[in-house]
Amino acid sequence: MPSTAVLQDMYEDMVTARYYEERLQEEYLEGKEPAFDISAGPIPGELHLAAGHEASGAGVCQHLRAEDTVTAPHRPHHIAIAKGVDLKKMTAEIFGKQTGLGKGKGGHMHLFDPEVNFACSGIIAQGCPPAVGAAMANKKRNTDNVAVAFLGEGAIDQGAFLESLNLASVQNLPVIFVVEDNDWAISMPKDRVTDVEDGSQRAAGHNLPGIRVDHDDAIDVYEAAEEAIGRARDGNGPTVVEVQVHRRMGHFMGDAEGYRPDEDVERHKARDSIERLAAVLETHGLTQDDLDEIRARSERRVEEAIDWAKEQPLPEPEEAYENVFTNDPSGVTESPPAASPPGGDE
Amino acid sequence: MSQAVAEERELTMSRAMVEAIASEMREDEEVFVMGEDIADYGGIFGSTQGLREEFGYDRIMDVPIAETSFIGAGVGAAQAGMRPIVELMFADFFGVAMDQIYNNMAKNTYMSGGSFSVPMVLMTAVGGTYNDAAQHSQTLYGTFAHLPGMKVVVPSNAYDAKGLMHNAIRDDDPVVYMFHKRLMGLGWMPSPEGPKVGVPEEPYTIPFGEAEVKREGADATVVTLGLHVHRALDAAEELAGDGIEAEVIDLRTLTPLDTDTILESVGKTGRLVVVDEDYRSFGVTSEIMAVAAEDALADLEAVKRVAMPDVPIPYSRPLEQEVNPDAEDIATAVRDVQ
């Protein structure tokens, strides 16, 4: 059982993520009601929220340091918060601001924070190979840092994931694949497209251990991650961890979920990992006031981040041309060495 | 012009595509559709809306998020004589499966000396304008049109969308059918005026390799496709107020390319502006200019291209608006060549 301090920490990450997304949802819908126009309002474009996934990010990232690498998918906020990504700069990025993590170029699917080695991306299973590469670098440099790739259960059919398992396994790399199973790949239920019910079974064919956490209680995630991350840090190679999470919302904002039975939505909302962790904290002696204080602190932090982000300037149009390359692309970046005279003898 | 045959019934581009697919599926049991979220969802951009209800899950197949497998499977089924329509949800995702697309789908006919055909449609959503950033906003017209062995079509309105889809399904070669999200008539992504037009109920085809002159004019030729047909028409309207008459050509297909229509127009105007939503360098705009330079150099007095600058597509609104050419950019280019 994790210490009370660890439980409190996970709880704070989880309530921060939930409240953050509730507030993002409000901001996102501004200018998009009554007629929903995806390109209107202060946050345009797609927005994939992770309500119901919080325990996975919190339980895993509790074991990570800033030097450990995390790659996340298109549903990244709860993982970013648990990994310690700068909340203000992340929020500014989501609002498309000049001072955002990516100067407004990336948006919510493309958040990069080198301070804590976090990146996320928009195409399914795309983060798996880079996590393997980070683990390769860790191993070559003889550190005990690890890399964690988060992905959805819909991603376990993708070549990028399966190939990554093989490469990580054959090279015994310190990488952990965390599959967040919310039962749905947009509109496609898992049993229609994936041949296993338990995604951690994918590990067996690659000679790797697989752990399935059947319910998203943060403590169970924490313990599974402790085993997997400990194994990686000790030089004993990769693990696949699948966590059953819950999809409390549509795939993206604006998804009416016409394909999804009401009972399924109700079932996913019925089990709330945040409430369950609060109940555990009470058995550890925390009072309702203590929990309220954590919640209030989290909400203040979120509001400060959103206020700050909204005050930030938008990028100037000409900034669109910056950062294509690290070095100035206007010409050769280095002069070639002078050619030796033919037949020269030194 | 297509509007001349328009009937009272108007369809969105997505409805027109669906109507063509349904019609071909009723006629030919060998036609089926594969893709992500195409069954119950009806396609993220509405390209298969309602088809599962009529044809069932066996012919409107949701598939795993594993593009290499299902696009490659489309190639195999096509080589076995079926007529699969495979949806790649966003053209940007081509990277996951390009080996199947350009090494199998596009080359097997040639490498087999014509003993195999690949009668497959790869339909895919393209384009930006809604702040979906660098991995979900590209058109990649030039990428697909560059590689030999694929026919590439890009409808700009519902009438063309239906006729091109009928032709694509009946064609014995692989056809990449690129539809612009902004033109589909989605409730959550409002289309400009223009793509929703009259569409006959009966099946009809639009032959590949026939561009359409959307507006006649003697002062400049504007060659474009997809969303930018509508932006070019807006620009032409504005320019007409200043006494500049721009001729607007909608390419409709990139492979095969209707060079005759382009050259004829350039012969008349002497001034060529090429517009697209793809990256500027080594792309469609360069190719059209090369065609004009090779075959109509004597006619050319001035040329200009209007395209995405060579940067990944940024997320933030002012940045995306900066890089994606609008009607004003097109009008400026036409004025520049006068």
Give structural attributes.
heterodimer; A: 346 residues; alpha/beta; Rossmann fold; 7-stranded mixed β-sheet; two-stranded antiparallel ribbon; 11 helices; 9 strands; 40% helix; 10% strand; globular; B: 338 residues; 5-stranded mixed β-sheet; 20% strand
How much of the sequence lies in strands of chain A comes to: 5-15%
Domain count of chain B: the total is 2
The low-confidence parts of chain B are none
What is the CATH first-level class name of the largest domain in chain B? Answer: Alpha Beta
What is the tally of beta strands of chain B?
14
Q: What's the gyration radius of chain A in Å?
A: 22 Å
SSE succession of chain B: EHEHEHEHHEHEHEEEEHEEHEHEHH
The computed structural class of chain A is alpha/beta
Element string of chain A (H = helix, E = strand): HHEHHEEHEHEEEHEHEHHH
Give the termini separation of chain A.
Answer: 71 Å
Fourth-level CATH superfamily of chain A: Thiamin diphosphate (ThDP)-binding fold, Pyr/PP domains
Please, how many helices of chain B?
12
Tell me what the CATH architecture of chain A is.
Answer: 3-Layer(aba) Sandwich
Low-confidence stretches of chain A: none
Q: What's the CATH H-level superfamily name of the largest domain in chain B?
A: Thiamin diphosphate (ThDP)-binding fold, Pyr/PP domains
Highest-level CATH class of chain A: Alpha Beta
Written overview of the protein:
The complex is a heterodimer of chains A (346) and B (338). In chain A, helix 1 (4-29) crosses helix 3 (77-83), helix 2 (54-61) packs parallel to helix 3 and helix 5 runs parallel beside helix 6. In chain A, the strands form two sheets. Chain A has a seven-stranded mixed β-sheet, sandwiched between helices. Chain A has a two-stranded antiparallel ribbon with strand order 6-7. Chain A has helices at residues 4-29, 54-61, 77-83, 87-94, 128-140, 159-170, 190-193, 218-233, 262-270, 273-283, 288-311, and strands at residues 69-72, 112-113, 118-120, 147-152, 175-181, 184-185, 188-189, 210-213, 239-244. The radius of gyration of chain A is 22 Å and the shape is globular. With 346 residues, chain A is of the alpha/beta class. Chain B is an alpha/beta fold and 338 residues long. The mean pLDDT of chain B is 96. Chains A and B meet through loops of A and helix 11 of B.
